[in-house]
What we know:
Elements (H helix, E strand, L loop, with lengths): L11 E6 L1 H10 L1 E5 L20 H17 L10 H13 L2 H17 L5 H13 L3 E7 L5 H7 L6 E6 L12 E2 L12 H8 L3 H14 L10 E7 L8 E5 L5 E6 L5 H11 L7 E6 L5 E5 L3
Parallel strand pairs: 8-9
Antiparallel strand pairs: 1-4, 2-7, 3-6, 4-8, 5-6, 9-10
Helix pairs in contact: 1-9, 2-4, 2-7
Amino acid sequence: MLSNNRLHDKKSFYKYMPASTAKIILQNKTLRWSSPVEFNDLFDVPRELAFDVSPIEIQRAIVDKFIELIRNPPERIDSLPDNIQLIVNAVKQANSKELEQELVNGLIDEHNTTKDSSSALEEFQAKWRKLVPELRILCLSEFHDKASMWFHYADQYKGAVLEVVCNDSLDSAWLVAKKMSYPKYKPDIYTAEGWANLIMLPQQVAIKKIIELATYTKSPDWKYEDEWRVSTSMRPTDNGTVSDYPLAVEEFGNLYLGPLIPDSERDALIKLASNFPNMKVFNTYIGMSREFRFVEVDS
Protein backbone atom coordinates (compact mmCIF):
# COMPACT_ATOMS: atom_id res chain seq x y z
CA MET A 1 0.00 0.00 0.00
CA LEU A 2 1.35 3.43 -0.95
CA SER A 3 2.09 5.89 1.82
CA ASN A 4 -0.16 8.94 2.07
CA ASN A 5 3.02 11.01 2.25
CA ARG A 6 4.34 9.88 -1.15
CA LEU A 7 4.75 12.79 -3.59
CA HIS A 8 6.19 10.94 -6.60
CA ASP A 9 6.32 7.52 -8.30
CA LYS A 10 10.05 6.82 -7.87
CA LYS A 11 11.10 3.46 -6.43
CA SER A 12 14.50 4.69 -5.28
CA PHE A 13 17.13 7.43 -5.45
CA TYR A 14 20.93 7.45 -5.47
CA LYS A 15 23.61 9.11 -3.36
CA TYR A 16 27.11 9.65 -4.80
CA MET A 17 29.94 9.66 -2.24
CA PRO A 18 33.60 8.92 -1.52
CA ALA A 19 34.41 5.38 -0.39
CA SER A 20 35.21 6.62 3.13
CA THR A 21 31.72 8.09 3.45
CA ALA A 22 30.13 4.90 2.12
CA LYS A 23 31.89 2.90 4.86
CA ILE A 24 30.58 5.23 7.58
CA ILE A 25 27.03 5.04 6.20
CA LEU A 26 27.04 1.24 6.06
CA GLN A 27 28.63 0.95 9.49
CA ASN A 28 26.31 3.42 11.24
CA LYS A 29 23.21 2.99 9.06
CA THR A 30 22.81 6.76 8.84
CA LEU A 31 22.72 9.44 6.16
CA ARG A 32 24.07 12.94 6.66
CA TRP A 33 21.68 15.85 6.19
CA SER A 34 23.38 19.24 5.90
CA SER A 35 22.63 22.90 6.29
CA PRO A 36 23.17 24.89 3.07
CA VAL A 37 26.18 26.56 4.73
CA GLU A 38 27.97 23.23 4.17
CA PHE A 39 27.26 23.13 0.43
CA ASN A 40 30.21 23.49 -1.96
CA ASP A 41 28.15 25.60 -4.38
CA LEU A 42 27.97 29.19 -3.14
CA PHE A 43 25.23 29.85 -5.71
CA ASP A 44 22.95 27.24 -4.14
CA VAL A 45 20.65 28.20 -1.26
CA PRO A 46 21.38 31.93 -0.77
CA ARG A 47 22.91 33.05 2.52
CA GLU A 48 21.40 36.53 2.09
CA LEU A 49 18.11 37.69 0.61
CA ALA A 50 17.21 40.54 -1.77
CA PHE A 51 20.38 40.74 -3.81
CA ASP A 52 20.60 43.93 -5.91
CA VAL A 53 17.25 45.18 -4.63
CA SER A 54 17.27 48.22 -2.35
CA PRO A 55 14.78 48.83 0.48
CA ILE A 56 13.61 52.00 -1.31
CA GLU A 57 12.77 50.00 -4.46
CA ILE A 58 10.88 47.44 -2.40
CA GLN A 59 9.05 50.19 -0.52
CA ARG A 60 7.96 51.77 -3.81
CA ALA A 61 6.75 48.38 -5.07
CA ILE A 62 4.81 47.80 -1.82
CA VAL A 63 3.10 51.18 -2.18
CA ASP A 64 2.16 50.35 -5.78
CA LYS A 65 0.83 46.96 -4.68
CA PHE A 66 -1.16 48.54 -1.84
CA ILE A 67 -2.63 51.17 -4.14
CA GLU A 68 -3.70 48.45 -6.57
CA LEU A 69 -5.42 46.57 -3.72
CA ILE A 70 -7.25 49.72 -2.64
CA ARG A 71 -8.39 50.66 -6.13
CA ASN A 72 -9.17 47.13 -7.30
CA PRO A 73 -9.76 44.99 -4.20
CA PRO A 74 -9.96 41.25 -4.98
CA GLU A 75 -13.02 39.25 -4.03
CA ARG A 76 -10.98 37.13 -1.61
CA ILE A 77 -8.46 38.78 0.67
CA ASP A 78 -7.87 36.00 3.19
CA SER A 79 -4.33 35.49 1.85
CA LEU A 80 -3.33 39.00 2.94
CA PRO A 81 -1.92 39.92 6.37
CA ASP A 82 -4.61 40.79 8.94
CA ASN A 83 -3.79 44.52 9.08
CA ILE A 84 -4.03 44.84 5.30
CA GLN A 85 -7.29 42.88 5.26
CA LEU A 86 -8.79 45.44 7.68
CA ILE A 87 -7.88 48.37 5.42
CA VAL A 88 -9.05 46.70 2.20
CA ASN A 89 -12.29 45.61 3.87
CA ALA A 90 -12.91 49.15 5.13
CA VAL A 91 -12.49 50.53 1.61
CA LYS A 92 -14.82 47.91 0.14
CA GLN A 93 -17.51 48.53 2.74
CA ALA A 94 -17.29 52.32 2.55
CA ASN A 95 -17.48 52.23 -1.24
CA SER A 96 -16.16 55.78 -1.21
CA LYS A 97 -13.91 57.24 -3.91
CA GLU A 98 -12.96 60.03 -1.49
CA LEU A 99 -11.70 57.53 1.13
CA GLU A 100 -9.95 55.55 -1.57
CA GLN A 101 -8.13 58.61 -2.89
CA GLU A 102 -7.28 59.78 0.64
CA LEU A 103 -5.60 56.45 1.39
CA VAL A 104 -3.73 56.48 -1.92
CA ASN A 105 -2.48 60.04 -1.32
CA GLY A 106 -1.39 59.07 2.19
CA LEU A 107 0.61 56.12 0.90
CA ILE A 108 2.30 58.24 -1.75
CA ASP A 109 3.12 61.00 0.76
CA GLU A 110 4.58 58.49 3.20
CA HIS A 111 6.78 57.01 0.51
CA ASN A 112 7.98 60.43 -0.66
CA THR A 113 8.81 61.65 2.85
CA THR A 114 10.42 58.43 4.15
CA LYS A 115 14.06 58.05 3.18
CA ASP A 116 14.40 54.41 4.13
CA SER A 117 11.65 52.11 5.31
CA SER A 118 13.55 48.83 5.35
CA SER A 119 12.24 47.24 8.55
CA ALA A 120 10.16 44.59 6.79
CA LEU A 121 13.07 43.57 4.58
CA GLU A 122 15.50 43.54 7.51
CA GLU A 123 13.09 41.37 9.50
CA PHE A 124 12.92 38.85 6.66
CA GLN A 125 16.71 38.89 6.29
CA ALA A 126 17.25 38.37 10.02
CA LYS A 127 14.86 35.42 10.08
CA TRP A 128 16.58 33.95 7.00
CA ARG A 129 20.07 34.26 8.51
CA LYS A 130 18.84 32.38 11.57
CA LEU A 131 16.95 29.79 9.52
CA VAL A 132 19.65 28.75 7.03
CA PRO A 133 21.98 27.05 9.54
CA GLU A 134 18.96 25.22 10.99
CA LEU A 135 17.85 23.76 7.65
CA ARG A 136 18.67 20.13 6.96
CA ILE A 137 18.77 19.08 3.31
CA LEU A 138 19.43 15.68 1.76
CA CYS A 139 20.54 15.83 -1.89
CA LEU A 140 19.83 12.80 -4.06
CA SER A 141 20.08 11.88 -7.73
CA GLU A 142 17.55 10.22 -9.97
CA PHE A 143 20.24 8.16 -11.75
CA HIS A 144 23.32 6.14 -10.77
CA ASP A 145 25.16 6.38 -14.10
CA LYS A 146 25.93 10.08 -14.49
CA ALA A 147 29.63 10.50 -15.38
CA SER A 148 29.74 14.09 -14.14
CA MET A 149 28.24 13.05 -10.80
CA TRP A 150 30.69 10.16 -10.45
CA PHE A 151 33.54 12.61 -11.03
CA HIS A 152 32.38 15.48 -8.79
CA TYR A 153 30.72 13.65 -5.91
CA ALA A 154 32.19 10.12 -5.91
CA ASP A 155 35.85 11.08 -5.57
CA GLN A 156 36.60 11.11 -9.30
CA TYR A 157 35.38 7.53 -9.86
CA LYS A 158 37.17 6.23 -6.73
CA GLY A 159 34.01 6.32 -4.62
CA ALA A 160 30.62 4.64 -4.68
CA VAL A 161 26.93 5.20 -5.30
CA LEU A 162 24.36 4.01 -2.78
CA GLU A 163 20.74 3.33 -3.69
CA VAL A 164 18.15 4.35 -1.10
CA VAL A 165 14.76 2.67 -1.44
CA CYS A 166 11.45 4.50 -1.19
CA ASN A 167 9.78 2.22 1.34
CA ASP A 168 6.10 3.05 1.75
CA SER A 169 5.51 0.89 4.81
CA LEU A 170 8.36 2.69 6.61
CA ASP A 171 7.38 6.14 5.32
CA SER A 172 10.89 6.74 4.00
CA ALA A 173 11.88 10.40 4.20
CA TRP A 174 12.56 10.52 0.43
CA LEU A 175 8.93 9.73 -0.32
CA VAL A 176 8.48 13.51 -0.05
CA ALA A 177 11.54 14.33 -2.18
CA LYS A 178 11.02 17.06 -4.76
CA LYS A 179 12.71 17.39 -8.12
CA MET A 180 14.87 20.45 -8.49
CA SER A 181 13.81 23.14 -10.93
CA TYR A 182 16.35 24.89 -13.15
CA PRO A 183 14.57 28.01 -14.45
CA LYS A 184 16.17 30.02 -17.25
CA TYR A 185 15.07 33.28 -15.68
CA LYS A 186 15.59 34.53 -12.15
CA PRO A 187 12.59 34.03 -9.85
CA ASP A 188 10.66 37.17 -8.95
CA ILE A 189 12.29 37.25 -5.50
CA TYR A 190 15.15 39.00 -7.31
CA THR A 191 12.87 41.95 -8.14
CA ALA A 192 11.31 44.66 -6.01
CA GLU A 193 7.87 43.63 -7.25
CA GLY A 194 8.49 40.05 -6.20
CA TRP A 195 9.53 41.17 -2.74
CA ALA A 196 6.45 43.36 -2.47
CA ASN A 197 4.28 40.33 -3.23
CA LEU A 198 6.04 38.37 -0.49
CA ILE A 199 5.85 41.10 2.13
CA MET A 200 2.13 41.51 1.44
CA LEU A 201 1.62 37.87 2.48
CA PRO A 202 1.31 36.62 6.07
CA GLN A 203 4.88 36.19 7.29
CA GLN A 204 4.79 32.41 7.78
CA VAL A 205 3.36 31.94 4.28
CA ALA A 206 6.05 34.22 2.83
CA ILE A 207 8.85 32.39 4.65
CA LYS A 208 7.54 29.06 3.35
CA LYS A 209 7.55 30.41 -0.21
CA ILE A 210 11.11 31.67 0.21
CA ILE A 211 12.27 28.30 1.53
CA GLU A 212 10.64 26.49 -1.39
CA LEU A 213 12.19 28.86 -3.90
CA ALA A 214 15.65 28.91 -2.33
CA THR A 215 15.80 25.16 -1.69
CA TYR A 216 14.29 23.66 -4.83
CA THR A 217 15.56 25.92 -7.63
CA LYS A 218 19.07 26.21 -9.08
CA SER A 219 20.78 27.77 -12.06
CA PRO A 220 20.38 25.92 -15.40
CA ASP A 221 24.14 25.24 -15.20
CA TRP A 222 23.33 22.45 -12.73
CA LYS A 223 20.56 20.77 -14.70
CA TYR A 224 22.82 17.83 -15.58
CA GLU A 225 22.59 16.61 -11.96
CA ASP A 226 18.90 15.62 -12.21
CA GLU A 227 18.81 16.34 -8.49
CA TRP A 228 16.02 15.67 -6.02
CA ARG A 229 15.93 17.02 -2.49
CA VAL A 230 14.33 16.46 0.86
CA SER A 231 14.39 19.35 3.31
CA THR A 232 13.51 19.68 6.97
CA SER A 233 14.66 21.59 10.04
CA MET A 234 17.17 20.47 12.64
CA ARG A 235 15.74 18.55 15.58
CA PRO A 236 15.85 20.03 19.10
CA THR A 237 18.63 17.59 20.03
CA ASP A 238 20.78 18.49 16.99
CA ASN A 239 23.82 20.75 17.07
CA GLY A 240 25.98 22.39 14.45
CA THR A 241 25.21 22.41 10.74
CA VAL A 242 24.97 18.67 9.97
CA SER A 243 22.83 15.83 11.32
CA ASP A 244 23.19 12.08 10.81
CA TYR A 245 19.75 10.50 10.69
CA PRO A 246 19.21 6.71 10.81
CA LEU A 247 17.93 4.45 8.03
CA ALA A 248 16.22 1.10 8.38
CA VAL A 249 17.99 -1.86 6.81
CA GLU A 250 15.08 -2.17 4.35
CA GLU A 251 15.81 1.33 3.02
CA PHE A 252 19.26 0.34 1.76
CA GLY A 253 19.28 -0.69 -1.89
CA ASN A 254 22.19 -1.64 -4.13
CA LEU A 255 25.76 -0.42 -3.94
CA TYR A 256 27.81 0.54 -7.01
CA LEU A 257 31.60 0.65 -6.64
CA GLY A 258 33.55 3.13 -8.73
CA PRO A 259 35.78 1.97 -11.60
CA LEU A 260 38.87 3.45 -9.87
CA ILE A 261 38.08 2.48 -6.30
CA PRO A 262 41.15 1.07 -4.46
CA ASP A 263 41.00 -2.68 -3.85
CA SER A 264 41.19 -2.21 -0.08
CA GLU A 265 38.12 0.05 -0.12
CA ARG A 266 36.30 -2.31 -2.48
CA ASP A 267 36.90 -5.28 -0.17
CA ALA A 268 35.81 -3.33 2.92
CA LEU A 269 32.57 -2.18 1.30
CA ILE A 270 31.73 -5.64 -0.05
CA LYS A 271 32.16 -7.03 3.46
CA LEU A 272 29.93 -4.33 4.99
CA ALA A 273 27.30 -4.87 2.30
CA SER A 274 26.87 -8.47 3.48
CA ASN A 275 24.98 -7.08 6.48
CA PHE A 276 22.17 -5.85 4.24
CA PRO A 277 19.92 -8.62 2.87
CA ASN A 278 18.50 -6.50 0.03
CA MET A 279 21.82 -5.08 -1.12
CA LYS A 280 23.54 -6.25 -4.27
CA VAL A 281 27.03 -4.94 -4.99
CA PHE A 282 28.13 -4.02 -8.49
CA ASN A 283 31.58 -3.33 -9.88
CA THR A 284 31.58 -0.49 -12.40
CA TYR A 285 33.51 -0.67 -15.66
CA ILE A 286 33.96 1.77 -18.56
CA GLY A 287 34.55 0.06 -21.89
CA MET A 288 35.28 1.15 -25.43
CA SER A 289 31.68 2.29 -25.75
CA ARG A 290 32.45 4.96 -23.11
CA GLU A 291 29.40 3.89 -21.18
CA PHE A 292 29.15 2.52 -17.67
CA ARG A 293 28.79 -1.23 -17.30
CA PHE A 294 27.71 -2.63 -13.96
CA VAL A 295 28.58 -6.23 -13.10
CA GLU A 296 27.24 -7.84 -9.95
CA VAL A 297 29.85 -9.06 -7.49
CA ASP A 298 29.62 -12.77 -6.72
CA SER A 299 28.46 -13.31 -3.15
